[in-house]
Amino acid sequence: MEKQIENLENNVQIFQMSKCSACDTTLQVPAVHFLCKHAYHLNCFESYSDNAKQCPACVPIAERIRMPSGKDTKGQSSYQQFQKELENSTDPMSLISEYISRGAFEPISK
Hints:
Number of strands: 2
Strand content: 5-15%
Largest sheet: 2 strands, antiparallel
GO molecular function: protein-macromolecule adaptor activity; zinc ion binding
Shape: globular
Domain RING-type: 20-58
Region (Disordered): 68-90
Distance between the termini: 33 Å
Number of domains: 1
Low-confidence stretches: 67-73
Protein name: RING-type domain-containing protein
Radius of gyration: 15 Å
Mean pLDDT: 77
InterPro entries: VPS11_C (IPR024763), Znf_RING (IPR001841), Znf_RING/FYVE/PHD (IPR013083)
């Protein structure tokens, strides 16, 4: 996993999404790309997003993970849930990228 983190920090990442996740038409620049592999035309992103730091498609998922109480529906903390998924993951970098794109590591605003 350390090697994958180093790769993200030091190497160019290629995003090859060809369609906008909002309008499902061919992407044209300017475009916004997320590590979760969603991509948007800039105008689609601005129209659909309430938060400039989060993927609009992943926000509902993030809301399920980041309950105001810090607990998920099964009573585990979000951190415990993340740890469990990370331990069982065959691709930990993809899991971490998915959580980052959902905003799971952002402070919870009250």
